[in-house]
Structure formats: C-alpha cells, structure tokens
Amino acid sequence: MSHALFDNIYVEKNAASDAETVRILERLACKEPEYIGHYKDVFDMKKVGASDGRSLILAHNPGKHLYEGAPVCQSFGNEHFYYSPSVMNCIYDCEYCFLKGMYPGRDICIFTDIKETFAELEELEKQFPVYVCASYNTDLNALESITGFASEWCRMAYEHENISVELRTKCSRTDIYENLPVSSRVIFAFTLSPDAVADRFEKGTPGLEARIEAVNAALKAGFPVRLCFDPMIYFREWERSYTEMIEKVTASVNLKDVKDISIGSFRISDQYLKNMRKKYPDSEVIQYPYVCEGGYYQYPEKVRTRMEDHIRKLLSDKCPEVPIYDWK
Asked: Among 88, 280, 288, 312, which residue's Cα sits nearest to residue 203?
C-alpha cells in the first residue's frame, strides 16, 4: 500500500492494534499496509542514496525511549537534557543532516508506543526537572498531520510542571499553533537559513519567508520561540547571504518577543561524517575539509569563529537584550 509521500507503508505485527497506529493509517487513508515482524526488516535494509524512494514504518520502540543529549547539542542551561527518538528520520532531505550518517536510507519509522515514552519521562520527572528535545531525529511539525505527536508533546508539557519540551522545526505550517495547548514549557525552535542554503542544501524545505511566517504564528499563539541560526553552512557567498537573512528576520520578527537565539556552525560526529562521505562523494558540504576535534568534525577555528562572530554581532546590534546561546 502506498501514499503520496511514501512508496510503501509497513506495520509491525505487534504494533498493529495500537491506537496511534490505527489513527495514523486512517489519516493516510491506508487500508492494507504490509505487515512485518520487525521494523529493521525494512528500515535497516536500504543502503541507498538520496535519490531513492521512501517507505513509512509503524513500529514499537524496542530500546530506550529517552537519551541524554549529545555534547554538540545545546542544553540552553538545562542540567537534565534529553532527547526522544519517537520518530526516526525526517521528511525533509537536508544534505548536511547527521541523520544521513545515522540511518541507512530515507525511510521514516514512527514508534506508535509513545505512551511508553511518556511513562519513562514521568519516572524521570520524579527525580528532577526534565528538558526534552522531541524533534531531535525528525521534524514533528512537518509530520503533524500524520502523527499528531507535536500535539501530544505539547499536552504532556502542559500537564507536567517539571517537563519542558523543545520542538525543533523548519516547517512553515501556521495553522497548528492555535489548536495546541499553550504552555511556557513548550519551546518552538525554528531553524532559519538563508534562501541560498535552503535552495542548495535543504531539499524539500520551505524558504526563509515561509519559515518567518510560522515563527510569527507561534508567537501570536503565545508560545515561547527560539530562533536557531544553526547550523551555519560555509560557502562562497555565506557572509552576504547570512547578513541579508538577518535583515529579513529582524524586519519581520519582533526580537523582543523571542525567548532566545541559538547560533552555531556546522559540526557532526566523526563516524556519521565518514558514513556520509561514502554515500555522497560529490557533495560540496559533506566533502568540505573539516577538522576533527574531540570526535567531532567542524570547520577550522578561523572559519567557524568568523562565521559565528559575524552573526552574533548582527543580532546583538539589533536586539542586545535577547539571550544568545552557542553550542560550546
């Protein structure tokens, strides 16, 4: 059984009766998916490049539902920082994304036992306040019409005083925010990129203007909003492109309404980049001569410092009172 977004739809037999599974299949108008024994029977089989098709898999998570945040991810001052892989892989096809080094293909796997994730989170909450990145391995906003998970994470944070949730997104949808329970503990973090970056390296993503409209929709609904100029991608025209981007953002978004700002140049684990370089030998961004420091590839210090300092100064000049975080 196929769908406009997917070549095939697979369901693990042990996940077939889940309420989430039933809802997702109804949303996709899928009456006859193919049933499989384990999601890895499909998900781990494709050693393919970005030009190949994509399948959807509905399954149970056989491992942990929450993981401590990686060193290259920003914790924003939160001591107990976790992420949840409730969905593996993203509907977008960003050339530089670490998911290309983590997963073998483009298939998307949705773990329909999300209630187990929330149960695990509630146990952590008994010990300390928890900050969870719910869109670490995907873009839940972009998949909301299929999964409804963004709504469920918002509800979770709304009902629990010691749980905060970040939903990172490049999605341009403006209609979802007015239907979500508003909480100061739900942060919508928008990745903003110059159109030159989106056009060249972020296949399938909305342009800058459309993302800005989504930012303003989230602000209007009353949600805390984080602007993420991260990862910054180096290319010949980077300085002009990022300068023009900041001018567009500051002209359209009242920065005084923004919770905070995140900046950072591209960095990635050494193993993920090695995997990606084998798969994409002609990619400009993947084949760049990065330097490896502490197990992570990044731009040479002179390049990354110049890029990050440039955008930090532009933002500080426009609105010095807004907190700016970097990943160091």
From this structure: 280
